[in-house]
Structure formats: C-alpha cells, structure tokens
Amino acid sequence: MVKKEFKIVFSFLFLIIVIAFVGCANQLPPGGGEVDTTPPIIVETYPLNGTTNFMDDYIELSFSEYIDKRSLSDAIFISPSFDGVPEFDWSGTSVRIYFPEKLKDSITYVFNIGTDVVDYNNKNRMDSAFVLTFSTGDKIDNGKIEGKIFSDKPDGNMIFGYKVKSDTDTLLHRKPDYISQSGKDGFYSLAGLSKGVYRVFAVADEFKDLIFQPEQDKIGVPFKDIVLSDEDTLVSNFNFLLSEYDTIPPRIFSATFTDRHHIIAKFSEPIDSTFIIASNFKIVDSTSHSIINPLYAFKGNTKIDEITLVTKDTLSITSSAFLFIDTLKDKNGNLFYNDFTALTISDKPDTNTISIFKSIPDKNYNKVDFTTQDFYLFFDDAFDKSKAANAFTFVDTSGIKFQIELNFIDDATLRLSLQKNLLPKNKYSLKIDLSQFIDVEGNKTDSAITYSYSTITGLDFTGVSGKLIGVDVSSNPILVLQEDNKMFIYYTEPDELMNFNFQRIEPGHYSLWCFLDEDSSGNYSFGLPDPIKHAERFSYYFEKLTLKARWSLTDINFIFK
User: Fold this and answer.
1) What gap in Å lies between CA 423 and CA 415, rounded to an integer?
2) Which secondary structure element, helix H or strand E, spans residue 298, and what is its range?
3) C-alpha span between 451 and 431 (Å, rounded)
4) CA proximity to 201, closest of 181, 216, 215
5) In angstroms, how far is CA 9 from the centroid of its own chain?
6) Burial of 96 by CB count in 10 Å (0-12 exposed, 13-18 middle, 19+ buried)?
7) Contact residues for 256 (Cβ-Cβ < 8 A; gap 6+)
8) Based on the number of CB atoms within 10 Å of its own CB, is 210 exposed (0-12), middle (13-18) or buried (19 or more)?
9) Where are the beta strands (DSSP E) in 136-276?
10) 3-state class (DSSP) for residue 310
11) Burial, 444: exposed, middle or buried (Cβ in 10 Å; 0-12, 13-18, 19+)?
C-alpha cells in the first residue's frame, strides 16, 4: 500500500517537473489578450553615450524585449565604417557586438541603430533611430545635423553624410562617411561630426547597400552644403523632399500595326506628351524606298509606355519597314535623338468606330465648379478635326446654349472650355454627336450621347489666409496647400507685405508648405545629385490644417524655417 502511494506521489511530482520544464523551454507570448503594439527601445548601453578614452573591442545593447536578430544586423550603421563585418553575441534581450578590427586612436565613433529593428513577436518597428556615440580619444566630436524627411513613406530612409574635400561631385559613388536613418515621423539626426564641410543626402535605399542606385532609389538633394565649426556645431531643420532621379533617356522597344492604319509604339518608359506629335515620326519602307509620314499621333487607350500612330497610306504585307523617331523625351527631361525600330506590318482592315473611353469630369458628375470647370474628352482614335466643332452642344435646363472653345491636347484628346461662367446649383448637359467623328478608314457611328452635370452651390468652400514670416518677396516664395490624398493642390504667392490668401478651397485635411522659387519655374525644383545642383529651399507649416466648409482659417503665422 505504501509503495502504491509512493508511486502516485512520484508520478505527480514528475508531471509538475515536466510542465515546468516545458514552460521554461518555450518563451512564447501568453495566449489571448491584446496584441502587443509597443515598439522596442534600447534601455541600456555599454559604453554609456558620450564615453571618452574607450578601449574595449565591443559594445553592448540591452533592449526592452526580444528582438528579431536579423533585423538588428541589417539596421546597425557605424561611422566611420569598418572594412569587415561585426560579430553579434546574443544573450536574451541583450547583444554584444564585437568590432571586426581595432578601433582607431582619437576618433569619435557613432553607432546608429536604425528603425528597421523589429521585436520578435509582433514585428513592431523602433519609433526612432538610436545613436550611441563614444570616442577613443579624450573628447567627443559634437557636431550634429538634424531635420525631417517629407515623403509618403518618411520612416526608414537613409541619411548619407559626406565630408567634402576636393572630390565634390562623385560622392554618391562610394559609401557615406556618416550614416543615420529617419524615424517614424521622418525625423533624423546625424551626430558625432567633426568640424568641416558636409554634403548630406536623404536616400530611400531599397537594397540597404549604402550606395545610391538611381534606377531604384529615391533621393532628397540638399539646398546647400553645411559648414560645421567650433562655434557652429548644430544645424537644425535641414529637411528633404524625396524624388526619383532618372538619367536614362527613353528608347523605343517595338512598333506594330494592329491593322493596316494603326501602329502601337512601345517605349522603355512613358514619354513626354509634348513629343507625341505626328511630325516627330516617319515610316521608311526599305522595300519600295519610300517614306510615309503618319497622319495622327496620340496617347489613346494604351498602356502607360505606349502611344498610337495613324497612317493614311498603307504598306504591303511583304514590305520591310522601320519606324523612325526624331526626338524622344521622358517625363524627367532625358532626351534621345534619332531612334528607330523595325515595324511589324498588318493588312487587317480597321472596322472599329470611334468612342470616348474617359472623360474629366465623369459623366453625370454633380460637383462641377461653375467658374473654373473645363471638360476633357479622351477618344480611342483620331479623327478629322474640321468636323469636331459641330459635334458639341452645351445647354442649361432652359435650352440656352453656351459657346465652346475646343483645344486639342493631342490628336485624340479634347479640352472643352466654356466662354462664360455657369450658375451655381444648376443642371447642364453636354450633347456629343458621334457622327461628326470619322477615322482615317471612314468609320463612324450615327449615335449621340449626352453627359449630364450639376454645379456646386459655391457655399461649401473654405479658405486659408495669414502671413509668411522669415523670408521676403525678393526670394520669390510660393505657398502650396496640399490635401492629404493629393486630390486638391492649390498655389498662391504672398503680396509685398508677405500676406497670403487661399480662396475657393475644397474642405479637407491639408499640409501647408512654401518653397523659394529660385529658377522662377513656378514649380519646386528637386535638384540633381551628381553633378550636384542644389534643390530649392522649402519649409512646412508646423501642423496639419483641417479646413471645414464655410469656415475659413485666418491669421496664420507661417514661420519659414
């Protein structure tokens, strides 16, 4: 009986030990409860930030929770950089990082732990980059550059700092001298800088290779170089706007007749619409030694990198022909001259009639502005322009007609401008007689379509007014009011007393910013990274604006920083 009781007690104790062992062996988050959304932070470091005469061969970081180890190894940046790769030795939530080589004498080192670090369980990112600075000498270089990146994705972008010496225009071809990373709100800090001249870039470094790759990385170009001295050690509000940097000119990839009159030309990228004109193209038939000039050129209902050409003359299916382009220009201004490609020929007849595949505003749109509205119609084929003027009738509910001015954006895209303002809170219709649109093959349809519109009341607008402080008129400031979803963007210039006023603004949530239009282009210049062309200086108002209908914001003091 005693043996039986002993076996029961032993089994019970064994079970408790097993349960305890399993519980200790698996460090898993408890089931149920709220999902952890708290970002990890660094709670302790060795050495302490600002340590001098540091002689050890490692540093140590302690986090507030378990960290994804790979994310730390990808997010630690050391300035000045080492040739080798650091070694990581983990123990729980702490990691010891051994240097791959001996530290240099009397140098300030900056270990920047970027915001790509995530916790183990829920992949929460660090809110902001962490900087650990120490020196192997008896003083810390205390120069600092800080600011913010304004972008759709402001966090996780790299800050590349280069100390400028004699080589000033090939800096981006090597890894930077100093590195940091922007945090959750786009803020960054580049610390531990000695006195000297610096050029700083913001880079959306997709491959995290610390080299700017124009083909895939967006870049923010500075508006000036920075000089740090013993007296001037801090530069604040050194901000960036990111943009794509494209130096590769467009090329034509292919050209194919879809029928005996229409050619689809495909390019390496979208091309500037001002170069989509028939006179920019020609067809050379090497078999008959003849040249055919296209009759029409337009974007049409094609892919983003395609356009449509139309010829009146046809080619024999047995011909060997080529499409030549005088000049190609992409949307970033890159030019390519005298490009060509072989033509694939078709003898298929064109039997399609012309139709409208898109309009701005949409059909039956009920928020037409009665003072500023133009109407755009996008056709899927080109047509005889001489007949188009008779195709449109714009009337109100009483049948009164409005005079219309036609402007061709290309050979298949029209802008209709009314010669007088509409009335608020009224209904209108645009009748389009499609029989007036005849393509090169003579195809047409006898139908007509009607677009109905309603105008707004004019009472639901809002506005913003105030004063711009910190710059003067001679610097050519332009203010921009930009809705969060970028549906509405408004521009204005201040008067001589630097007062500004935005009127007739749609309600919504807006950012207010200003740039100094140095080249008088009317648009913000992002600059060029290599060779350097500095960007234009800009500044954002410190908070977002919520603009409500019938309630304007006034007396805003916008300090340009």
Assistant:
1) 20
2) strand 296-298
3) 6
4) 181
5) 69
6) middle
7) 263, 264, 343, 344, 346
8) middle
9) 143-150, 158-163, 178-181, 187-193, 196-204, 218-220, 226-228, 234-235, 240-241, 252-257, 262-267
10) strand
11) middle
Which of 241, 224, 236 is CA-nearest to residue 532?
Answer: 224
pLDDT value of position 18: 44
Continuous segment of H or E residues that includes residue 528: strand 528-529
The span from the CA of 219 to the CA of 534, in Å, is 12
Q: What are the start-end ranges of the H helices in 336-449?
A: 385-388
Q: Three-class SS string for 221-232?
A: CCCCCEEECCCC
CA distances from 53 to 107, 272, 431 (A): 9, 59, 83
SS3 60: strand
Handedness of CA 19, 22, 27, 30 (dihedral sign): negative
Which own/partner contact pairs does 81-87 have at CB distance under 8 Å and 24+ positions apart?
A: 81/175, 81/179
How far is residue 23's CA from residue 229's CA, in Å, rounded to a whole number? 58
Q: Do 255 and 343 contact (CB within 8 A), yes or no?
A: yes
* Residues 6 or more apart whose Cβ sits within 8 Å of residue 235: 144, 145, 146, 226, 228
Question: What pLDDT was estimated at residue 199?
Answer: 96
Inter-residue contact 149 to 188 (CB < 8 Å): yes
CB atoms within 10 A of CB 55: 7
What would the two tokens of residue 400 be? 């009164």
Half-sphere exposure of 274 (CA within 13 A, CB side): 6
* CB-side neighbour CA atoms (13 Å) of 420: 8
Q: How far is CA 112 from CA 79, 145, 189, 433, in A?
A: 8, 14, 10, 66
User: Can you read off the two tokens belonging to residue 403?
Assistant: 């005079």
pLDDT along the chain (561 residues), means of 10: 46 47 44 77 96 96 95 88 89 95 92 91 90 94 95 91 79 89 90 93 91 91 95 95 92 97 97 95 96 97 97 94 97 92 96 95 92 93 90 95 94 95 95 95 92 91 96 96 89 97 94 97 93 95 94 96 93
- Phi/psi for 8 (5° steps) reads -65, -45
Query: Residue 27 has what pLDDT?
Result: 43
